[in-house]
Design goal:
- The protein is an all-alpha fold and 190 residues long.
- It is 87% helix and 0% strand.
- α1 (2-8) packs across α5 (94-123).
- The radius of gyration is 19 Å and the shape is elongated.
- The protein starts with a helix and ends with a helix.
């Protein structure tokens, strides 16, 4: 159930990575134009422009993740309801499978949003900040997951969600720091 639930909930983050790659290409086309249009004494306008770009495309990425998650859910339900999935893989506990599947959708969605923020840290020349966000997310997952999995192994999926929340928040904070200090970091990246 764990393997099937987590594997079946993975396609949205994999497919949405194409959107994220497109966003980075757009970022590197837009950022030099924004930098050229902003005079040196108007640095906050440049930083604000980068942050606005981030929010606009974070929303696009989030919508893509949500739509892909809904599609994945519909396909998963169809595969179970039609009996197609049961022909290949026996499902001894459907409630547990659905719990893990939904937890996986939520956790992978959070992971995707965190990766989206980390992309900006890495592309603007601050990969260590992305690594720190990942480390905090992993630490939260382990510290919460070990005790929860002692209760029941399927509860470790909740730790995946909580670790994802830590990752999203910290990655977003690091991303905002990078974009707010883009005058220093951006020059190094060009």
């Amino acid at each position: 159930s764990v393997e099937l639930g987590l594997t079946a909930s993975m396609p949205p983050i994999i497919i949405a990575n194409g959107v994220a790659e497109h966003v980075l290409r757009r970022f590197w086309r837009r950022a030099p134009i924004l930098q050229a249009e902003t005079q040196g004494e108007q640095l906050p306008l440049f930083q604000q422009g980068l942050i606005q770009f981030y929010w606009r495309y974070a929303l696009v990425y989030l919508v893509a993740l949500l739509l892909l998650s809904v599609g994945t859910q519909a396909l998963f339900y169809w595969a179970i309801d039609s009996g197609v999935l049961v022909q290949w893989i026996p499902i001894p506990n459907p409630q547990e499978l659905f719990f893990i599947f939904y937890a996986g959708l939520a956790a992978y969605g959070l992971l995707g949003m965190g990766i989206f923020s980390c992309m900006f840290c890495i592309t603007v020349g601050a990969p260590i900040l992305a690594v720190r966000a990942v480390a905090w997310g992993l630490l939260a997952t382990l510290l919460i997951g070990l005790p929860l999995s002692g209760i029941h192994y399927s509860f470790s999926a909740l730790a995946f969600i909580i670790g994802g929340l830590f990752f999203v928040v910290i990655a977003w904070q690091k991303c905002m720091y990078v974009l707010r200090s883009a005058d220093h970091r951006f020059a190094m990246s060009l």
